[in-house]
């Protein structure tokens, strides 16, 4: 669903939001797109279990756990950070995943780095039995195929399409289905991630670029300015944003509009990739740091 934003921007620039966050209550936004063909493939292969990887607040872990419950797969999440093992109850993402039936295996950051090594995967198979493996963040060729379905033919009217970037799977799908007259802008949520090669691997087209100035210090880092922006955007539009990805994307695009980056009359489509489950965990951090917290819609 595309939702035009009724804010008057300079230079006749128009902003429309693609509400991928509304696709499913628990399999959020782009994670739904990325899992779709992987689930179909796992069913085709007759697998009964899915294993994947993620951090303590991972949208992908939450989405995979919910998808496993909905589509009848046992799920295992290999989680970065041994210290979390007795703190599941304090972590909304991990509690949610566990309540969906996901088995959580906690490993140290050192061990987690081996997540793509064949020996590590073999050991996991010895421990958990056979499984369909979905990589960290859910990005593989089938995920990119799913993300090609984010844009529809009617979206060809937009001059620019902007989305947040983590592993690069989502933007790769968008690049592949965007028209050549459209410019695709990716806003990495992390610092210096060497994403260009990853994206080019899936999407050799050249109608895109990364805007690297809006990561706010790195992955999962936020400051007061960002929190206040997210709350103000909710007040003005009724649309909630997450602090890790979409908040930074929307902040960046609106900042660039006021800096004159976009040509007069640009018609920009912003992809809301979801991720709202992460707000609860982030608010615990913000409270601890005595910073303002992110408003949740029901409180407004
Ligand atoms: C995971 C995620 C992204 C990043 O997607 P990639 O395909 O890894 O680049 C963007 N937005 C949200 C809300 C996410 O959860």
TrEMBL record:
Keyword Magnesium recorded: no
N6-(pyridoxal phosphate)lysine: residues bearing it: 31
Matching PANTHER family: 1-AMINOCYCLOPROPANE-1-CARBOXYLATE DEAMINASE-RELATED
Keywords: Pyridoxal phosphate
Key word Secreted present: no
Family as reported in the entry's similarity comment: Belongs to the ACC deaminase/D-cysteine desulfhydrase family.
SUPFAM superfamilies: Tryptophan synthase beta subunit-like PLP-dependent enzymes
Protein's name according to its UniProt entry: 1-aminocyclopropane-1-carboxylate deaminase/D-cysteine desulfhydrase
GO molecular function, one term: D-cysteine desulfhydrase activity
Active site: 58 (nucleophile)
Domain of life: Bacteria
InterPro entries to which the protein is assigned, alphabetical: ACCD_DCysDesulf (IPR027278), TrpB-like_PALP (IPR001926), TrpB-like_PALP_sf (IPR036052)
Needed co-factor(s): pyridoxal 5'-phosphate
Chain ranges of the Tryptophan synthase beta chain-like PALP domain: 13-274
